[in-house]
Amino acid sequence: MKSNLEIKKEAIEVLELESRALLEIATKIDDNFVEVIHLITKLAGRVIVTGIGKSAIIAQKIVATLNSTGTPSIFMHAADAIHGDLGIIQKNDLVIAISKSGNTPEIKVLVPFLKQANNPLVAIVGNKSSFLAEKADYILDTTVEKEACPNNLAPTTSTTAQLAMGDALAVCLQTARQFTDRDFAKYHPGGALGKQLYLK
């Protein structure tokens, strides 16, 4: 069993590693990101966010953040999409696909169907030479040097990068829409947050 000092040291190393990764991701914000913001603000439809595995969990959080900050969004699991859930996607929607490798079997099967429908496809991807990146209309690069996992296997740093990129999208869209605290209150009537906003 590790000592208390060793446990604290390891935890700090994880946080420092992920912090450095986010600073590196910040340098990759480019014209693709700006174009995606402009595209979504003019969108007549909704943002559909998809992924598999841990990326699917991140996709759900991004959808929740987008919805609560004024951008109508829906989560679509990449595995379920080819078994009927593709019907979620409508003519005026935009699709964001999240994947670290960009080469998972589910993504490789799904992407051609997404391209057939001609919806704009945005990739939040950690491999710019992947299948997903090559097929996407816009790439948001979340490449990380290594995972915080000591085996460099469990998605840790990479999912933190995906989540942060989603937050960056949501905040930029929120300010672009001039989404105020009053608007926020409409979507958060319950709980302590809703009470605090309505009392204001």
Describe the fold and architecture.
The chain is an alpha/beta fold and 200 residues long. The protein contains 9 helices and 5 strands. The chain has a 5-stranded parallel sheet with strand order 2-1-3-4-5, sandwiched between helices. Strand 3, helix 5 and strand 4 form a beta-alpha-beta unit. It is globular. The model has no long low-confidence stretch (mean pLDDT 93).
Question: Can you tag this structure with a few keywords?
Answer:
200 residues; five-stranded parallel sheet; 9 helices
Briefly characterize the structure.
The chain is an alpha/beta fold.
Secondary-structure element series: HHEHEHEHEHEHHH
Straight-line distance between termini: 50 Å
Number of strands: 5
Number of helices: 9
Mean pLDDT: 93
Radius of gyration: 18 Å
Residue windows where pLDDT falls under 50 for at least 5 positions: none
Structural class: alpha/beta
Helical content band: 40-55%
Q: Outline, from the CA principal axes?
A: globular
What percent strand?
5-15%
Q: Main sheet? A: 5 strands, parallel
Strand order of the largest sheet: 2-1-3-4-5
What's the layout of helices and strands?
Blueprint: H1 4-26, H2 31-41, E1 47-51, H3 54-68, E2 73-77, H4 78-81, E3 94-99, H5 105-116, E4 121-125, H6 131-135, E5 138-141, H7 157-176, H8 181-187, H9 191-199
Parallel strand pairs: 1-2, 1-3, 3-4, 4-5
Helix pairs in contact: 1-7, 2-7, 3-7, 8-9
